[in-house]
Specification:
Oligomer: single chain
Number of helices: 19
Strand order of the largest sheet: 1-2
Largest sheet: 2 strands, antiparallel
Mean pLDDT: 84
Shape: globular
Helix content: over 70%
Radius of gyration: 22 Å
Length: about 475
């Protein structure tokens, strides 16, 4: 029986095209449809808006290229969890794996799928409980804030259903999950290209909007604060680029294909983001963008006419469901890697004998993600997970320097371009972002602008990982 168990393992079935599609699909979600309007209100300048998207894209590319060097060296399933184990040891690796489960990837799945359900309401309105009922059940966390699980329960219920549906697809095989990701990647890029064509061929558009600043005061937070906050929004839209490393053990020729997929995928994403922001600006002046609740819908309404609302709703739904699928597929491999090392509940390391997927890890992930859906709204979830993610992004980039010393003779099929400056620039940006986000969250909560301190809530979710690590080390399954 033990021999049979050893024969059941994950299989390498993902080629360069599917791997690149997973990178693109994991990144392009709801951010590009939601964040530009808010960023316009924070900046008030089209030149600055375009520059922020470019800078965020370059910094993210630096992070991806830095990560790619390690990914070319270490090609085991589990991605950055395995990286951290080689760099810092099992404790830091475990905290990262726990953070992935507690907030980073599960929060990403929850928030992105939540946006899908919000846009689904364009076609069918989801039920809501009366306000007094929504407010009647509240979970208060000292020094953190309040959670209302029953608020917007119809949208949350649909979100949970979609999460389990996509989990089921990935349960049935990584090849099927990869094909679904590739399909939705093609669909979402096609929808974006369609919007670009209509926007740039709109007769009422103007290239003057590219250089004309807002004529009204739309930013009362200061230009430096506005830039940092706008960068935060752009970083969220670019997030997810490292998901492909989690399934390295299921990629064909991972030493070559993962670095290529990260590089090609990020170039495609940056190009698309810059073009779509130019399209927004071509149709709408910066001050109109700043006042828009959903800039993609407004641009579509102006340039496409009567069916614009349905088009944008479908585009966002396609984009978000594809991103959720890719994230669900990749993230479960982290918990699988933890359990394989006997640092997590051992059944999580089980590979389904027929479908060759980490079936128990997928089920556990979907269960906790469903609970996070009930805990908060889209902005709460994104702010929480991005803050925690960038702590580990910084640690991952620092790891390149450490591995150059610890494993200097290890073969490196790919070396990060611009070393040592490329990783250093990324690290500095990551540290600045984390510090500023923590300060801003606390200030906003103290001024009554938010119901919860998202960054502190994210840290709170990570803390249980410390005693759990020592428990599993002591128990030694």
């Amino acid at each position: 029986m033990n021999e049979n168990k050893k024969k059941i393992s994950l299989i390498q079935s993902l080629g360069l095209w599917t791997t690149t599609a997973i990178v693109i699909g994991a990144v392009i979600g709801s951010g590009i449809f939601k964040k530009p309007a808010l960023m316009a209100s924070q900046l008030g300048s089209p030149e600055l808006l375009f520059l922020i998207w470019l800078i965020a894209g370059i910094i993210t590319l630096f992070g991806a290229l830095t990560n790619a060097e390690i990914a070319s060296m270490i090609t085991e399933t589990g991605g950055q969890y395995v990286f951290f184990e080689k760099i810092y040891g099992s404790f830091v690796a475990y905290l990262y794996g726990w953070a992935i489960l507690a907030v980073i990837q599960t929060g990403s799945i929850a928030s992105i799928t939540y946006v899908f359900s919000e846009y689904f309401e364009y076609f069918i309105t989801m039920p809501k409980l009366p306000p007094q009922v929504e407010q009647s059940f509240v979970i208060k966390i000292p020094y953190i804030g309040s959670i209302f699980p029953l608020s917007n329960i119809g949208v949350k219920s649909l979100t949970i259903f979609i999460i389990w549906l996509l989990t089921g697809i990935n349960y049935l095989g990584v090849r099927l999950g990869g094909k679904v990701s590739a399909f939705f990647t093609v669909m979402k890029i096609s929808a974006i290209l369609c919007l670009l064509v209509f926007a740039f061929t709109y007769s009422g558009g103007s290239t003057e909007n590219f250089i004309k600043d807002s004529s009204i005061e739309i930013n009362d937070i200061g230009i430096f604060t506005g830039i940092i906050m706008a960068l935060s929004g752009a970083f969220w839209a670019y997030d997810g680029w490292n998901n492909i490393t989690y399934i390295a053990g299921e990629v064909k020729s991972p030493q070559k294909n993962i670095p290529k997929a990260l590089f090609y995928g990020m170039l495609v994403i940056i190009t698309i983001y810059l073009l779509i922001n130019l399209a927004y600006l071509y149709v709408l002046p910066i001050e109109q963008m700043a006042q828009s609740n959903l800039v993609a819908a407004d641009v579509a309404s102006v340039s496409m006419g009567a069916y614009a609302g349905a088009f944008v709703a479908l585009a966002v739904m396609i984009s978000t469901i594809g991103t959720s699928n890719g994230t669900i597929m990749a993230s479960a491999r982290v918990y699988y890697a933890m359990a394989e090392r006997k640092l997590f509940h051992l059944p999580i390391a089980k590979v389904h004998p027929r479908f060759r997927t980490p079936s128990n890890a997928l089920i556990m992930q979907a269960t906790w993600t469903s609970m996070l859906v009930l805990s908060g709204k889209f902005d709460d979830l994104t702010d929480m997970l991005i803050f925690v993610s960038w702590i580990f992004y910084a640690l991952g980039a620092i790891g390149v320097y450490i591995l150059r010393l610890k494993m200097k003779d290890h073969p490196r099929p790919y070396k990060v371009i611009g070393y040592p400056f490329t990783p250093a620039i990324f690290i500095v940006f990551a540290i600045v972002y984390v510090i500023f986000t923590l300060i801003t969250d606390i200030q906003n909560y103290s001024q009554g602008k938010t119901e919860i301190v998202n960054s502190l809530f994210g840290i709170l979710l990570i803390l249980p990982g410390i005693p759990l690590y020592f428990y599993y080390k002591w128990k030694k399954f």
